[in-house]
Design brief:
This protein has about 150 residues and is α+β, with helices and mostly antiparallel strands. The protein contains 3 helices and 5 strands, in the order H-H-H-E-E-E-E-E.
């Protein structure tokens, strides 16, 4: 009887150890996948910011808000981007796009950062300078929802 109960104990302990190992492995994979998804989103948003920066040089140079708005209107198809702001060289909001479901948020009140990537309130914030012929014209700032 003692051998049988010892054997059952070893089997149960082994099964519990394997279960804990599988649990920790699963949590590790989920964590890595989340980190990879966040990095992919940061990369995508960075590319978007560079494209917008390249396309609004003329709008900022000639203070043409209508042209800047037309560039930002292309973001309507990007569901992950909640807010995009174009700021002039003094940090004043020049033009912006805001997704309809987050219009009550005060994105416009947050000035662009010098940091390329920041994280705020469940958003990745990407800032990209707008530079033309070595002259700083302004900043593009995109808020992407995690």
């Amino acid at each position: 009887m003692a051998v049988s109960s010892r054997r059952n104990f070893v089997i149960i302990a082994f099964a519990a150890g394997m279960s804990l190992g599988l649990l920790f492995a699963s949590l590790s994979f989920i964590s890595l996948q989340h980190k990879d998804s966040k990095n992919t989103l940061m990369h995508f948003t960075s590319i978007q910011a560079k494209l917008i920066s390249s396309n609004v040089k003329g709008a900022l140079s000639f203070e043409d808000a209508k042209d800047a708005n037309a560039v930002l209107d292309t973001l309507k198809t990007q569901n992950c981007i909640a807010f995009a702001g174009i700021y002039d060289c003094n940090g004043k909001l020049f033009s912006y796009y805001c997704r309809d479901d987050v219009r009550n948020r005060e994105f416009k009140l947050v000035p662009p950062t010098k940091a390329k990537f920041t994280s705020r309130d469940g958003y990745i914030v990407v800032s990209e300078p707008v530079i033309h012929e070595h002259q700083f014209l302004g900043t593009v700032c995109l808020w992407t929802q995690l």
